[in-house]
Specification:
This protein is an alpha+beta fold and about 100 residues long. The protein has a single domain (about 5-45, about 50-95), classed as Alpha-Beta Plaits (2-Layer Sandwich). It is about 40% helix and about 35% strand. Helix 1 (about 15-30) runs antiparallel to helix 3. It starts with a strand and ends with a strand.
């Protein structure tokens, strides 16, 4: 079965708020079997103009990624993140 991935580009404007988000999100990621593969605050931007934190999280399946994203735990964390950062986020299924 192909793995599922959450890919995010996060432009933080409130560092303390983002830290609180991360503290809330990490237990939810673990609960749904997620593994953070990439978390880089200074990615090498080759196209586009925005810089920010690049994140890639691997889940056992796209369904696990969806269940994580739609969970009450992540929904609460996301509300905190939305106050602290602008985010582009996608869920994708691996090959």
């Amino acid at each position: 079965m192909p793995k599922g991935y959450l890919v995010a580009h996060i432009r933080v404007h409130d560092a303390e708020g983002f830290k609180k988000f991360a503290e809330m999100a990490m237990p939810a990621i673990a609960e749904y079997g997620g593994k953070v593969l990439v978390r880089n605050p200074n990615p090498e931007v080759r196209e586009g103009s925005d810089s920010g934190v690049a994140v890639v999280i691997e889940f056992e399946s796209i369904e696990n990624a969806r269940n994580f994203y739609e969970s009450s735990e992540y929904t609460a964390a996301k509300a905190v993140r939305e106050l602290a950062a602008d985010t582009d986020l996608i869920l994708v299924e691996g090959m």
